[in-house]
Amino acid sequence: MRTICFYFQIHQPFRLKRYRFFDIGMDHYYYDDYANEDIIRRIAERCYLPANQTILQMIKETKGKFKVAFSISGIALEQLELYAPEVIDSFKELAQTGCVEFLAETFAHSLACLEEDSDEFELQVKMHAKKIQSLFGYKPTSFRNTELIYSDDIGRRVSAMGFKGMITEGAKHVLGWKSPNYVYSCASDPRLKLLLKNYKLSDDITFRFSDWSWDQFPLTADKLINWISACPKEEDVFNLFMNYETFGELQSKETGIFEFLKAIPRMAEKADINFETPATLFSKRKPIDRIDVPYPISWADEERDTSAWLGNELQRSAFNILYSIRDKVRLCTDRKILQDWYYLQTSDHFYYMSTKHFSDGAVHNHFSPYETPFEAFTNYMNVLSDFMIRVREKFPEGVDVEELNSLMKTIDAQGKIIAQLEQEKNDTSITPSEAKAKKGKVECKAQKVTKEKKSTAKKGKSTASSPKSKKSIA
Fold first, then answer.
1. Residue 55 CA to its chain's centroid (Å)
2. Which of 394, 417, 448 finishes a domain?
């Protein structure tokens, strides 16, 4: 039986205010609260609330046969909690139907997966999954990376985190003659199953639905279902992945986009087509082949690669400078610094710096709050410069990365020992003598780790105060 898999992305960045060079060191608040609230409220009223109500109605009318998946970035969730909490409530109502899956992604909607020799990616994924579970009572088992970015290496890392499947782009230069309408597996770890976006059908809805110059205009539900039915009978999974803002924002209510969405289940039932979430497909379907993706792909622009965010020198410079202070940020306990760290990683900031032209450039300009990519770069780097000053105030320049890493490992080890002590304290299955012996061993380890921690901190302090260190700071 043929299946349609709907997945919707929900993400909005914390947009930066105009931050001048003279603000560096003086103003530590970076965000345009007015614009952020205004945009979230507008999209909530035009898209999130009416679309959620439409989908809830579709689930009830089909008695649970209609199913969808959402990926909501942690950054978007925080803004919805601040400015439109009723949207969170509407998603909770959808979650209670049992017909909605919530996918995991990076909390900051970041490009952390492209940062080598770092566990920032894994930390953000765990943070996001925890947020989803706390809000909706749902533990994600499927993964969707920022902008559908995927490669064999990323797939291996996602599988190592315990996810059963991942969704990504059905990029033509990767698929070649193959169709995206099957379940595939990761080349580097076959345990991870893959769903690939059918970008033609998805883009027909997202970008061409109200385009009068399109030769297939108007797009109706029965026309979409007929296109799916006309595909070779072996092709059985049609992945329609798109921004949720398609409904009511990119395609306004006046275009008939909500009526189109509501009609899809009725037309699909006539054609014997059902709906499933990614998790169900990953559990029921076997992959027909592996997909080799040696270099990262995404769902952006004609190239379907990462050039939308790291395609020019401005973007790469900003990216490299940001992640150069990652180890020091991770040692901070200052909640404001950690919050800014996540907000500054959001991929949108790098997207605004793109210098692409022609059709792709038009899309970039449509979403950017800046007049030029160079203005976006200058504003971001001014903010980043101030952020780096704040981070460096917490840690002396003389402490190098190796010493910081050593200190981080020591702190992590101490945390594990404390957790082990708590677990054994609550373990009633061991005798008092066994508990006493284990306690003695653990206390010895704790003392050793504490000595190492003090030694590392002392070394960092002495290095920072040495003449050599002062010279480097100067």
1. 23
2. 394
In a domain, 298, yes or no: no
Least confident of 79-93, 104-118, 341-355, 389-403: 389-403
Query: How far from the centroid of its chain's Cα atoms is residue 91's Cα?
Result: 18
Catalytic, out of 147, 169, 249, 276: 147
DSSP 291-348: E--SS-B-SSTTTTSSHHHHSSHHHHHHHHHHHHTHHHHHT---HHHHHHHHHHHBHH
In a domain? residue 297: no
Within its chain, how far is the Cα of 327 from the centroid?
A: 21
Instruction: Tell me, yes or no, whether 19 and 136 share the same domain.
Output: yes
* Residue 79: CATH number of its domain: 3.20.110.20
Burial class (CB in 10 A: 0-12, 13-18, 19+), 59: buried
In-domain check, residue 124:
yes
**Is there a contact between 40 and 75 (Cβ–Cβ < 8 Å)?**
no
Share above pLDDT 90 across residues of the chain, in percent, rounded to a whole number: 78
| Helix H or strand E encompassing 145 | none
Do residues 376 and 426 both lie within one domain? no
Residue 284 belongs to domain spanning? 2-291
* Model confidence pLDDT, tens digit, residues 347-374: 999 999 999 864 454 555 567 899 999 9
The tokens 């930390």 sit on which residue?
123
Whether 147 is a known active-site residue: answer yes
Domain match, 219 and 282 both:
yes
Q: What is the pLDDT of residues 326-349, one digit of tens each?
A: 999 988 889 999 999 999 999 999
Question: Closest Cα to residue 168, out of 147, 196, 142, 201?
Answer: 196
Same domain, 222 and 337: no
User: Contact at 8 Å (CB) between 69 and 102?
Assistant: yes
Question: Do 253 and 357 fall into the same domain?
Answer: no
CA quadruple 448, 454, 457, 460: dihedral positive or negative?
Answer: negative
Distances (CA, A) of 54 to 50, 59, 90, 99, 349: 6, 9, 11, 14, 32
